[in-house]
Write a structure and sequence with these properties.
Elements lengths: L1 E4 L14 H9 L3 E5 L10 H7 L2 E3 L2 H5 L3 E3 L17 E4 L7 H9 L3 E4 L14 H18 L21 E5 L3 H12 L3 E6 L2 H11 L3 E5 L2 H9 L3 E4 L14 H5 L6 E4 L21 E4 L2 E4 L9 H30 L1 H4 L2 E4 L2 E2 L2 H7 L6 H7 L1
Helix pairs in contact: 1-2, 5-6
The structure holds 1,4-dihydronicotinamide adenine dinucleotide and pyruvic acid.
The site of pyruvic acid has 9 residues, from loops.
Length: about 375
């Protein structure tokens, strides 16, 4: 199969969908990889390294996009929709629930879109989301600590406190991969950490992992409201796979927070869990102030640490890309049910229920389309 790897064009998105090591894996299996010139530079991979690995360098995005399968990191931006064509296999993060226009463009052009974030194993885990959630979770506490500094607009709180002065309070809503990794860093910084989750079993696991270094609470509006009133930093880390994030924090709750507190809505890629994170920010201009609270809502946080992120991402995506390339998407997805769950649009239909519900579009069972065609 011919595989294209375009350069990412989102603001400060320095990751790339394939490393030279990934090229070697695919090339040895008999596939050709076409990398847009300069695509790897942000992650420290030169064109020469790709050529040495067996890739062909193409000078335009169009040439990378005209291949049978395109691998990307972030969802295509509107200026990339013109590259869609019927039957294109697009393997990337998509986050379609908050993206009606992208969903429509994929359907109209009958793209076979396979979203990294909905590839799901039988145990419910999301193997192609996990490494980036690890990165974003760890970054969330680091970023929150930074924006709590006065010159950055925060209330001037040092999360660790010092002897004689109390520690800063961090509340993490959602105790999955992002939440756990955010907690690791926040605990390491010496903060007073609370994790709120809806799943009692998950709260038990967190209690086992962190012991008395954290507090755990069941997710309900009262517990969230009480935690927010006294938090310096709140991290949004909830996910319902494929669906729009639930708005768990109301504008009233934000108003109850102290001036200069910070929220980091990691779940913004699925629409965000705060009523007031009604817009996505960028690494260039990452925060805005609402009711005296600094809001950070960058949807591609790992793009800021591309060396770590690109390697972490491709470690997990390349084995799935190899299955798609070796067998074609129909057989690969029929043989591997985790990959099948990744298909969000096919033959002009939305095949992921939560996405269809988010846009009030007809939903078609992916199995039935694969059988019919
Ligand atoms: N902004 C960015 O750059 C990035 C964003 N993300 C996003 O971060 C979000 C979280 O991802 P993961 O941690 O990997 O998901 P996960 O599935 O590991 O964890 C989600 C957690 O939310 C909990 N949850 C569900 N409903 C809840 C509720 N009503 N109240 C409290 N907790 C609830 C679940 O029980 C689970 O523990 C996703 O939207 C993901 O796409 C991930 C990586 C980068
Ligand atoms: C998960 C995701 O969207 C990202 O890493 O940018």
């Amino acid at each position: 199969m011919n595989i294209g790897v375009p350069r990412e064009i989102k603001n400060n998105e320095n990751r790339v969908a394939m490393t030279p090591a990934g090229v070697v894996t695919l090339e040895r299996a008999g596939h050709r990889v076409f990398v847009e010139t300069g695509a790897g530079l942000g992650s420290g991979f030169t064109d020469e390294q790709y050529i040495a690995a067996g890739a062909e360098i193409v000078s335009t995005a169009g040439e990378a996009w005209q291949q049978e399968m395109v691998m990307k990191v972030k969802e295509p931006l509107s200026e990339e929709y013109k590259f869609f064509y019927e039957g294109l296999i697009l393997f990337t993060y998509l986050h379609l629930a908050p993206e009606p226009e992208l969903t429509k463009a994929l359907i109209d052009n009958k793209v076979v879109s396979i979203a990294y974030e909905t590839v799901q194993l039988d145990n419910g885990s999301l193997p192609l989301l996990t490494p980036m959630s690890e990165v974003a979770g760890r970054m969330a506490s680091q970023i929150g600590a930074q924006f709590l500094e006065k010159p950055k607009g925060g209330r001037g709180v040092l999360l660790s406190g010092i002897p004689g002065v109390r520690r800063g309070k961090v509340t993490i809503i959602g105790g999955g991969v992002v939440g756990t990794n955010a907690a690791k860093i926040a605990v390491g910084l010496g903060a007073d950490v609370t994790i709120i989750d809806l799943n009692p079993e998950r709260l038990r696991q967190l209690d086992d992992i962190f012991g008395s270094t954290i507090n755990t609470f069941m997710s309900n509006p009262l517990n969230i409201a009480e935690a927010l009133e006294e938090s310096d930093l709140v991290i949004g880390a909830v996910l319902i796979p494929g669906a729009k994030a639930p708005k768990l924090v109301s504008e009233e709750m934000i108003k109850s927070m102290r001036e200069g507190s910070v929220i980091v809505d990691v779940a913004i890629d699925q629409g965000g869990i705060f009523e007031t994170t009604d817009r996505i920010t960028t690494h260039d201009d990452p925060t805005y102030n609402r009711h005296g609270v600094l809001h950070y809502a960058v949807a591609n946080m790992p793009g800021a640490v591309p060396r770590t992120s690109t390697i972490g991402l491709t470690n997990v995506t390349v084995p799935y890309a190899l299955q798609l390339a070796n067998k074609g998407y129909r057989k690969a997805c029929t043989d591997n049910k985790a990959l099948l769950k990744g298909i969000n649009t096919l033959d002009g239909f939305v095949t992921y229920k939560a996405v269809a519900e988010a846009h009030k579009l007809d939903y078609a069972e992916v199995d039935s389309i694969l059988q019919d065609s």
